[in-house]
User: What shape does this take?
Amino acid sequence: MIPYKTIFSVNRASKQPIYIQLTNQFIKLIKHGKLSPGNKLPGSRTLSELLTLHRKTIVACYEELILQGWIVSVPQKGTFVNADLPILKQRRLGNPKKQCDNKVSGFEFKRNPILDRSFPQKFDEDSMYVNDGISDSRLTPVNEIALIYRGLAVKKSTVNELWYGTTYGNILLRKNLVSYLNETRGLNIGVDNIMITRGSQMGMFLASQLLFADNGYVIIGETNYSSSDTTFEFSGAKVLRVKVDSQGLVAKEVKMLCEKYKVKAVYTTSHHHHPTTVTLSAERRIELLNLAKIYHFAILEDDYDYDFHYNHAPILPLASHDQNGNVVYVGSICKTVAPVYRVGYLIASKDFVDECARLRRFIDRQGDALLEMTFAKFIKQGSLDRHIKKVLKIYKSRRDLFCSLLKSELSEYLSFEIPKGGMAIWVILNKKYNWNLVTTEALEEKLIILEWKRYDCANLNHNGIRMGFAAYTEDEIYEFIRRFKSTMRRIDENI
Assistant: This one.
């Protein structure tokens, strides 16, 4: 006999109705075999007295169980657990308390080692970590963006945007971005050449799925943005690497590989090569475009930080010189404003954009229409330009301070070139040291160095990593340098 009086519990403070609480507890008893198929349940009056609940509550519970198929009511006989229910087979894990920990699946699935990455985790508030070159979210014009968003949200006409929309993205944002990018980046595109994505990574993923559907080769730098490596390999592409020097990807090596392999695409972060920050020279840009025309490959141009250039005006992207429809250009607003605003874009020939939009339907049905409308207005009224001008001055000042302190305090440990733009510095550690040891010792200073190996996927042993500076205030930069110096002094003492 089930001890109904003690086995059931009711939380009267819960927002969940009491009859639903009882229903769920009955279901759990049935699933765990405490109530077997065919078992008779107590009558509603009897159970209401045992549980000191109103009979109507018990009746409602039984009705819900009947509707869900867990129990049946037989006239003149009573209420029974559905005899047709199969017995739920439990997985034996030894300790019954661990049967529902949900840590191990009961089925097979594909594990892809390509996806194994350790991404940034949360740390103590007083910890600092060597970031990859990210913007300072504290400079985000949150109030201005919120006012625009709220103003749009309360408009009666906005209700039309709450339904399913286009996979290409909000038409107003597309139009405004076309005007903005044509003006600032020298592009010559129309609205049919652009689709909105949730950041540049989505654009890279969509493009890769189409370009490497039947495998094929992609050319990247010996040093390269590791997430793009993963994206290409996951899509089935075979990776070929070429050297990166002070002028960017070595075009002569690209040509040699094209003569030997059927190359589907060449990937470049042309403005500031990731991770080394070098700019692809004008000569190399023209060479790549000519090679793309001759060998019919796509140029995947990831312009992740075009807006941040400190020494002179930004160099126009390859997409601005593309006359043959070879360039797929991806970028985002989230890197410029704040990572949380997942608004990016993919630009290419109309036929390629159309196919990306078709594929996007089965990955992410559509973007956030209200957010996209907000940024359409944010761009149109000049707010994006004002924000860029503001943070550009701040980031330049931080770059100068960061580089100055690296040179004066840490030159015996590392070397670097002052970057012309971007939000990070390419730092080469003295061969006397290694990042594995530095990473371990830095933890004592609450300085976190994440995934340093991702900067050397080709195993060149260059001993370099990126150090972001834009996200730190001047006081934080001083503290960062102090912690790094203390780390290196600690290593010296133990050598």
Remarks:
- The domain at 4-81 is CATH 1.10.10.10 (Arc Repressor Mutant, subunit A).
- The chain has 15 helices and 17 strands.
- The CA atoms of residues 160 and 369 lie 10 Å apart.
- The radius of gyration is 30 Å.
